[in-house]
Structures are given as structure tokens and as C-alpha cells.
Design brief:
The complex is a heterodimer of chains A (474) and B (142). Chain A has 15 helices and 19 strands. With 474 residues, chain A is an alpha+beta fold. The longest helix of chain A is centred in the middle third of the chain and has 36 residues. In chain B, helix 1 packs parallel to helix 2. The chains are: A alpha+beta (474), B alpha+beta (142).
């Protein structure tokens, strides 16, 4: 993108108002030189500047170091709009509403479980439906689905699929109270009724990790992490139900834009005034879909526990460390104003002082999980108080793609990727050779650089590095 | 116009770092819509025409313009693929103009619901007419 940018710091790049017609606020991107050049190669910066034209956008729009081209919003984009006179944009959340990451910590070390690792990964792949498969063990009737949409993970307590401790270690307790199942279309419910407890496709996964290195022993102790320990990372979202909610509301809002006199540079930025009935209805539908996603990761958690017991013995136990969303719009107070913070491929990263940081983590800040790729490290970070002023309390969400899916497939076949991972001692299960090739480690940016930037910028700080030893891909 | 799972499709995939951009060409709006369905089937069940017990569905859509019609068409097929585990392998586009489509689609019920594509998006959407016929581009969220 050819716009004037100012580097105000080694990792801070500013695009001033006026660089593009209609920008109401400047754009700021956190990136080192190498990442900045990668970001400038696609249309991500154009898209971030488009977001800066949204009505009611406040202060600045932000790009995280893993930012890349998306649709409407860039992936890795953050924008806050005023509740009083601003808009909510389904494109700022994405089709996979509340796509997110959950970390489970186990009582095993890699050394103690190494001989049974293959059977553990096999058991996980057998227990958790992935790819195109629905959940044969949990199809919800309309009333039960509405309960999940209304209550999220809390609805699973009675089914024995969740514990009170699990909910205490999930963002918002795994249950957004503004959710309204009636705002979710019948079509969305028809897509989602048999998908609870499934990973889906694309970059979604369940991974067995080993805690490779601890960088912050105080925070690691608070999170229950020690070097050598086995852990499980779950990455998935609201499945077809969430996709349909976004499809429905983008279509509705596009038809009403002339009525609201809203002019957009990109139709995928379709939005509605937060104060309008349609804006409010989307928000409550999005919350319902987010509850479905929290519940999805919770049902998968129960399946992971079953698989651990089957493979490693009946005493095997796993604790939820935390569960964070990275595709979401949240109503939050910043600087005395009530704002709707859109995080599209970005993670909330609140510090010790924030009231929404869970009680167990008040001394160190909320945990943040940054998946790498299936052959490289993932990271556990801690939220910071200063991130509130730097990025509305947001940080990155992953390594960020560097290669298109076509280019990734051309670079290596699924069989070659599988072989390379097995050479590293990583056990892989994936129903699709195409999918495996598209998600190859070299298709992603260097997660170490991404994490180094957010650490240096103060958006989050390093706590521990995880190394994959078992991968179940969607 | 009848479209089948064809060996000579008029569509191609363009580079996009995160998602998948589809370029479609055809001699008419109906032709482009038919190509879009075939491209989607190829993506969801790559490499081979899907087989299984056949089901027939009538699809009727109204949209404000042909680009919106393309989005609605693709999203309708994605919805049916996931809800009914069904993918058309033969489509009779009985009526198709700038704002309206009526199709009779035949295809197999699949073993499981394909879920690779989340949605057809509006970002960078175009559906234009030129000297050589119609050309469209649409970005699919993967």
C-alpha cells in the first residue's frame, strides 16, 4: 500500500488521517521491519484504513503484528466504535464468531507419557469429530440448542460436560448474558444443531503440547504451567451456526445502509448503528453464537478428558487454564467511554488491574494463547494494563498466514508435510491431505517475531513457550 | 441451461493469503452462476464428482443485483451442503437474470457435511459484462 507512514518507534507504524479519503482516525500497526514489509505486500493496510472510516470509530484503529489481508477488516485488526453514535460491523467479527483458543493443563509430563503419546493422539482423533464430521453423540433438539445459545458453557453443567471451575477459567464465564436465541435464524440453528463438540476445517485443531520453556515463572505458576508438562490447545469456533449468523446480518445491514445514510468503501464492512434495533439484534445474535462457540470448546474439553483417561489411565485429569476469543465484538469501557471493541483475529489481553481479568489471575494478568503452526511453537502470554492505552487491551492471535493456500499446496504435498512433522517427533492426524498441505508450517509467519513484537510493544508479555507433540487437524 | 460436474470448467482460483478468491467466466449470468456452483463443488469435494443417492432440490432466489445474486446463490449452496449433506452435480438453471434465479439441482447426499468454506463474502465482489461475456470475482472465507 502506498500511503505515508511514520515509524514512531522500532515496532510502531502510524498511518495518519488523510492518507485515505474518509479516514476518521489514524491507523497504527505494531510490527518489526520484517513483519512490516510482509504486511505491506498484501491489502491488509488498505483494509485497516477502510476500517478507519466506520461511523463512530474512536481514537485509532490498530493492526497487530500477525496482520494479513482478510475480507472487510484485515485479520489482526482492532477497532472500537462509540456505543452512542457508532456502528457494529459483523465483518469486524468475521464469519467464525468467537473463534478462539483454550488451553488445558495436565498432570503428566512428556517424559511420563511419551510411550503412550501415539495412542493418546489416536484416541483424541477418534473421540473428537473433525473436518466435515458432525458430532454423532450430541445432536441438540431446538429447545436444547436455544439453551446452549442462551447460556453457553453454563448449559453443560447439568450434562456433566463442564465444571464450575471450567467456567471460572473461561472468558466471561463462557456465557454472555446479552445472548438472544430468538435473534439467531432457523437456518443458523439448522446448520449448528449437530456440530457442538466438533473442530471443523481450515486452521482449526486440537494439539498436544509440551511446555518447552518458561519465561515468567510467577505468571507460569499462576497459570499452572511447568516445563516438561503436557498440555492441550484447542482452536475452533462457532461452526456453521456462527457462519450463518454473519451471512444473515451482513445481508440485512447491506439492504439498510441507504436508510442510515452510511457509505462504505467495502460492502463487507456492512454495519448498523449500535443504537438501532438491527444493530442491537445482531449484537445479541453474535453473543448467542459466541456462547455456542464457548460451549463447543467446552464439549471438546470433555472429549479430551475422556481420551486422556482412555489412553493414560482413569486418574488422568486436565484443568482449563483459560479460554479466549479472537473474533468478537465486546462492549467495554475505555477512558470513560462505552465502546464496542471489534477484534478480528485479535485477542483481548487485559492486565492485572482490569475487573474482567479472572480472580485467579489478578496478580499477573489474563492468559493469552498464540498458536503458531502445527510444526512450530505456540505461546502463552499475559495481558498487561498498559495494553488498554496501546490497543484497547488487545494483542495478536497467531502467527498470521504468509502464503496463500494454493502456494502452500504447491510448496509441499500433504504427505511431505506429514513426513516432515513426524521427523520432528510430532504425531499427526488429519482427514485431508489438502488441508494438511495448506496448513504447513511454512505457510505462516514466524511466530517468534510476532510474539517478540507484542512483548516489546507492551501489548502482552511472554510467559511460556509450547512445543507441539501431537496434532489433530480439522 | 444445464450445468454438470464438468471436466472443462470456466473458473480459476486467484491468490489470496488467507482465503480463496474465485474468478468465474461465462457467456451469460446463468453460465457464471452454474460455474460458481461447480467451483464450489470442486472445492468441497476435491478431485472427483461426488457419488451417493441422488436428491433433487428447487432453489429460488431474489436479489437486488447480479453480484448479490451470486453471493446469495453460493451461500444457499453452502447452507444446503451443511444442513442436508447435499451437493449439486447437475444444475438446470430454469430462470436466471439480474435479480432472480430458479434452479432445479440434482446431486448426491454425502457421507458427511462438507465444511471447508464458511461463506461467500462481499469483499472485492464484482460481476461485470464485457466484450467476451460475463466475468465475476468472489472471495470465499475458508
Amino acid at each position: 500500500m502506498s500511503v505515508p507512514t511514520l515509524s514512531t518507534d522500532t515496532v510502531v507504524h502510524e498511518v495518519p488521517i488523510g492518507s485515505r479519503p474518509g479516514m476518521l482516525v489514524p491507523a497504527r500497526v505494531y510490527a518489526d521491519d520484517a513483519l512490516w514489509h510482509e504486511i505491506a505486500e498484501d491489502h491488509a493496510l488498505d483494509q485497516l484504513c477502510n476500517v478507519a472510516t466506520l461511523p463512530g470509530v474512536e481514537q485509532r484503529v490498530y493492526g497487530m503484528p500477525d496482520m494479513h489481508e482478510g475480507y472487510g477488516f484485515p485479520v489482526g485488526g482492532v477497532a472500537a466504535t462509540r456505543v452512542s453514535d457508532g456502528v457494529i460491523s459483523p465483518g469486524g467479527v468475521g464469519y467464525d464468531i468467537n473463534c478462539g483458543v483454550r488451553l488445558l493443563t495436565s498432570t503428566f509430563t512428556l517424559a511420563s507419557a511419551r510411550l503412550r503419546l501415539e495412542s493418546l493422539v489416536h484416541e483424541l482423533s477418534r473421540t473428537i469429530p473433525s473436518g466435515a464430521f458432525a458430532n454423532p453423540r450430541l445432536s441438540l433438539d431446538p429447545a436444547a440448542l436455544d439453551t446452549v445459545l442462551r447460556e453457553g458453557s453454563r448449559s453443560l453443567l447439568d450434562r456433566g460436560l463442564a465444571t464450575v471451575d471450567d467456567l471460572a477459567h473461561t472468558e466471561a464465564g463462557g456465557s454472555l448474558e446479552e445472548a438472544d436465541p430468538d435473534a439467531v435464524s432457523t437456518r443458523a440453528k439448522e446448520r449448528g444443531h449437530n456440530q457442538l463438540g466438533t473442530i471443523g476445517s481450515g486452521n482449526h485443531f486440537v494439539e498436544v503440547e509440551v511446555v518447552d520453556r518458561v519465561f515468567d515463572s510467577t505468571a507460569a505458576a499462576a497459570y499452572g504451567l511447568v516445563e516438561g508438562q503436557l498440555a492441550v490447545l484447542i482452536h475452533t469456533g462457532s461452526r456453521g451456526l456462527g457462519h450463518q449468523v454473519c451471512t444473515d446480518y451482513v445481508r440485512l445491514m447491506l439492504s439498510l445502509l441507504p436508510e442510515w445514510n452510511i457509505h462504505l468503501p467495502d460492502r463487507q464492512l456492512a454495519c448498523a448503528p449500535l443504537a438501532s434495533p438491527e444493530g442491537h439484534r445482531y449484537y445479541t445474535a453474535m453473543c448467542a453464537a459466541a456462547n455456542f462457540a464457548f460451549a463447543n470448546r467446552q464439549v471438546i474439553t470433555a472429549a479430551v478428558r475422556d481420551a486422556f483417561r482412555a489412553a493414560l489411565g482413569p486418574s488422568a485429569s486436565l484443568k482449563v487454564c483459560y479460554d479466549v476469543a479472537h473474533n468478537m465484538a465486546k462492549l467495554e469501557r475505555h477512558g470513560g467511554s462505552e465502546l464496542c471493541v471489534h477484534r478480528k483475529g485479535a485477542t483481548r489481553a487485559f492486565g492485572p488491574a482490569h475487573p474482567e481479568t479472572p480472580a485467579a489471575y489478578r496478580a499477573v494478568g489474563q492468559p493469552v494463547f498464540i498458536p503458531g503452526s502445527m510444526g512450530t511453537a505456540s505461546w502463552v502470554l499475559a495481558g498487561t494494563d498498559e495494553a488498554l492505552a496501546l490497543s484497547f487491551g488487545s494483542t495478536c492471535h497467531g502467527a498470521g498466514r504468509a502464503l496463500s493456500r494454493t502456494a502452500a499446496r504447491a510448496a509441499a504435498s500433504g504427505a511431505q508435510v506429514r513426513h516432515a512433522l513426524e521427523e520432528q517427533g510430532i504425531v499427526v492426524r488429519c482427514p485431508s491431505a489438502h488441508g494438511l498441505a495448506e496448513e504447513a508450517p511454512n505457510a505462516y509467519k514466524d511466530v517468534e517475531r510476532v510474539v517478540a513484537v507484542v512483548h516489546e510493544a507492551g501489548l502482552a508479555r511472554k510467559v511460556a513457550r509450547l512445543r507441539p507433540v501431537g496434532v489433530i487437524k480439522g | 441451461m444445464t450445468m454438470s460436474f464438468a471436466p472443462h470448467p470456466s473458473f480459476e482460483y486467484l491468490p489470496h493469503v488467507g482465503e480463496l478468491r474465485l474468478r468465474l467466466r461465462g457467456s451469460s449470468i446463468a453460465d457464471v452462476l452454474g460455474q460458481a456452483a461447480l467451483a464450489l463443488a470442486e472445492l468441497l469435494v476435491p478431485g472427483r464428482p461426488p457419488t451417493g443417492p441422488e436428491q433433487v432440490q428447487e432453489i429460488v432466489l431474489e436479489a437486488p443485483d447480479r453480484a448479490a445474486l451470486l453471493i446469495d446463490w453460493l451461500n444457499e449452496l453452502l447452507f444446503l451442503a451443511e444442513r442436508d449433506r447435499w451437493l449439486p452435480s447437475r444444475i438446470d438453471l430454469l430462470e436466471a437474470n439480474e435479480t432472480h434465479l430458479r434452479a432445479m439441482a440434482r446431486g448426491p447426499v454425502l457421507e458427511c457435511a462438507p465444511s471447508l468454506v464458511k461463506a461467500a463474502t462481499w469483499h472485492g465482489l464484482r460481476f461485470e459484462v464485457g466484450d467476451g461475456g460475463f466475468e465475476a470475482e468472489v472471495l470465499l472465507d475458508i
